[in-house]
Write a structure and sequence with these properties.
Layout lengths: L21 H10 L4 E7 L5 H10 L3 E11 L14 E7 L3 H9 L1
Parallel strand pairs: 1-2
Antiparallel strand pairs: 2-3
Length: 105
């Protein structure tokens, strides 16, 4: 499993969607000898710093990301069927510049 990296993982910070706790995710990845792991919570990066620090501590490369939303609609559009025009988009930071860009988004 060392060559396999999960790049789409939700934690408890994905409100109403994620259940996994960061420490437990990292322990499982460590037990399976995974070299890296990404977290991509829905529309938020609340767990990024905790994840980064904990991953570094146990020798796992942390990959910070977010699952964002893409739409052509106006945010105030609440009309019937409006959600059919939205899409999820996975964004991963390659480096510190990428992380800062994700924070801006």
């Amino acid at each position: 499993m060392k060559d396999f990296v999960h790049l789409h993982v939700h934690t408890e910070y994905s409100l109403l969607d994620g259940l996994s706790k960061i420490d437990e995710l990292l322990q499982t990845a460590h037990d399976k000898k995974m070299s890296a792991l990404a977290i991509t919570d829905h529309g938020a990066m609340y767990g990024a710093v905790k994840f980064f620090n904990a991953a570094k501590k146990i020798g796992i490369k942390p990959i910070i990301g977010v699952e964002g939303y893409l739409t052509t609609l106006n945010m105030s559009d609440k009309s019937m069927g409006a959600q059919k025009s939205t899409y999820h988009q996975l964004l991963l930071a390659k480096n510190e510049t990428g992380y800062k860009n994700l924070m801006k988004l």
